[in-house]
Amino acid sequence: MDVEELRQNLRHSVNLLGALNLTRAAKWAGEALVGLREPTEEVETSVKHKQIHNFETLPHRESDCMMLARGQFNSKEFSRCAYSLRKCQSPQAVFMRLHSTYIDGDRKREEESQGILGANDSKVTNANAPHVLKELSSLLESPQYSDDPFLLYLYGALLLKQKSTELATETLIKSIKLYPFNWSSWSELITSITGLDEAQLILHDLEVHFAHDFSALTMVRIGKIVIYQELFQHFEQLFKDLQGLLELFPNFAFIKTQSALVSYHALEYQQAENTFDSVLQQDPYCLDDMDTYSNILYVMDKKSKLSYLAQLANEVDKFRPETCCIIANYYSLKCEHEKAIMYYRRALALNRNCLAAWTLMGHEFVECKNSHAAIESYRRAIDTNPKDFKAWYGLGQAYEVLDMHLYSLYYYQQASIIKPHDRRIWIALGQCFDKLKKVEDSIMAYKRALSLSEYIDLSIVYKLALLYQTLGQEAEVYANMRTIYVEEVNTEHHSDETAKARIWLARHEMKQGNYSEAYSYAVDLTYGTSQEIEDARAITRAARNKMNN
């Protein structure tokens, strides 16, 4: 019965959201509805969903105006849509009017901005936004409109764009409590959440509020998965929750994609690739999040598979931002960075808020040695989503290239706050502290990186040894050099670090008078630079002479 109630609510939300021109939310609800598991038998249910915005009760004249406005909206005549609804007073008509007004302002802003990273790109704003925000603020004080979930959603979304994050979060939570099936509200709420503690408080509040409502609680469960995924969490309970949702929605590509993204953030690329393959087999025309799939193929250096994905996406819809990002990734893998940048620009022309395009375009500018353009791209990515650790990390790298290490340090620290279990960030912090002569901080960062490694990274151990040498802590230097030697013996793997460690240990033992130990370190050194090999031979001869005397 609970599942049938959920089915009823999703079915109702598809119709309602579509009628209000919230097309993305309606599409999401439709995919959830079709992806829900089939009933084991025909169930007659009398479940009543909440009657929100019953269009049948509207006066005929207002209903007629809304039907006209809906057609105008679908024809992208946003100004006409708003004008047709100017005399309508129902909450749903007011929402459609203000929503159309805002979108029309966005359209005009795009026309005036003169392209991505153009002269006026960052200066031009949505001229309609302040008027819409002011009217919404006034309307929501009125009893007729104060509890309308869609007006609250629009108000929250606009507040978020104005950087009034705290009030936006409160407003969006209120909207969700009134109507939890509008995924657009969830998307904006997820964007507004900045940290794990805040996320846990919000989720607990919603779980308590919907404690006896299976359908709404299911929406909270889905929201929780996405929130934790975006905060780069990958604990055991998250995988259990994902499995439970996959059993409830076996054919919902969105849930499978979230599972793939969790694996991707956990650096489990093979698992993520397999999940995306499953999504494509189930829905070969699905492009949602396929740009992330292309990132995985890029990291795994699967050029032929990435080429196939780019061709497939281009055939499905060449004017989707995801398609442009996939093609850009393909060119990037071929080291054709200028072409990659061109396609990232196309993605951003189609959707200015395409986070992946801003971040990846920054990477391409770094490859082209254009640090200033890279910095601007990364800044735009952070404006779009402050939780994007790759953009913070990219800013750190860009400023490091410019030898501005204090700036670099700040951005690496921000990246480490967002993703504290990523060893790459801690290695970058260690290098940055080292360049700023903050030796003890550098040591702490490198130790943190080692603790997060699945294996002993000898390059980090060697850097630690050098840092301890700077501090004059001979015992710590010896311990780290010895670790490198033992790891070499155990793995039979030779590197620059193992050669240098052998030379240091041999010299150290010579100073201590342990000539047999010095001999054993130096005698087997047949690799490394010509100078290191010559030094090893000299130590071997000296140690042998001392032992023979």
UniProtKB/TrEMBL annotation:
InterPro entries cross-referenced by the UniProt entry: APC8, TPR-like_helical_dom_sf, TPR_rpt
GO biological process terms held by the UniProt record: anaphase-promoting complex-dependent catabolic process; cell division; positive regulation of mitotic metaphase/anaphase transition; protein ubiquitination
Cdc23 domain segment(s): 5-260
TPR repeats: 355-388, 423-456
SUPFAM superfamilies xrefs: TPR-like
Cellular component terms (Gene Ontology): anaphase-promoting complex
Pfam families reported for this sequence: ANAPC8 (PF04049), TPR_11 (PF13414), TPR_8 (PF13181)
Alphabetized SMART domains for the sequence: TPR
Key words of the record: Cell cycle, Cell division, Mitosis, Repeat, TPR repeat, Ubl conjugation pathway
PANTHER family per record: CELL DIVISION CYCLE 16,23,27, CELL DIVISION CYCLE PROTEIN 23 HOMOLOG
Protein name, UniProt field: Subunit of the anaphase-promoting complex/cyclosome
Species per Swiss-Prot/TrEMBL record: Cyberlindnera jadinii (strain ATCC 18201 / CBS 1600 / BCRC 20928 / JCM 3617 / NBRC 0987 / NRRL Y-1542)
